[in-house]
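MODEL INPUT / OUTPUT PAIR
PAIR INDEX: 1
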Amino acid sequence: MAASPTARTLQHCRDKGVLCEVVEQFVNFPPPGHRKDLFGIIDMIACVPGGGILAIQATSASGVSARLKKAKAEPRLKVWLESGGGFEVWGWGKKNGRVTLRREVLTVSDLEIDTDADCF
């Protein structure tokens, strides 16, 4: 059985010595249940020594574009970024039989929301 994008991301971070934890939850109501990301877009938080706090959305390589689009439209991402957190979408795929990782970084200037509006 192939590892999920979240499992691959968790293992990759831990292999690099990065403290990380999955923050996505399984919500059983209403049935049949579904996964709920932190702030609608975050699967995992990583504490990167010398690099700060990083929120990661893990997906397949084919899902990167859709996840980027969703994240760019999420107002809570602006608050996260302006609070000092980083955000990346990690897409896992295979090329020539090898597992590949595509990392896409988002900043406040990438957001498709009104970035001049106050958050509070």
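PAIR INDEX: 2
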Amino acid sequence: ARKIIDLASAEAARLGHESVDTVHVLLGIIREGAGIAGGALSEYQLDAERILQSYESVCDESDVTLADLEARSRLEADWLGHHYPGTEHLLLGVCCLNHSRAARLLEALGVPPIDLCHFVIEILGHDDEWERWLTDHPDMTHSR
């Protein structure tokens, strides 16, 4: 997960942005590519070009802080019984913070964040806990 944040910082700098936002984190996940989250995004045909083409539609909107995202990622790791947050927990965090720029961008691209969450939970082998996950995440307003 640290590598993703470093890649997100590099994306923000490359784009001339002063701060890192959640869309940069998505780009970092894509650039890293090897983790569970990168695989999930590619499964939905989300690549850097597609994200960047839609970035302008959300760049003027408010976003959550990286501290909020990191805290949410830790919560997701804890919920799954994992010892530290990885790429999958960052992606779950982005999607669960449905008021983040990245979650709104995913929705605009026709990829509901809840679908990404379900896919990640499946990949992690916790599909039998999906209903409990939904119950424990009441802010996820869409159902699959």
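PAIR 2 NOTE: The mean pLDDT is 91.
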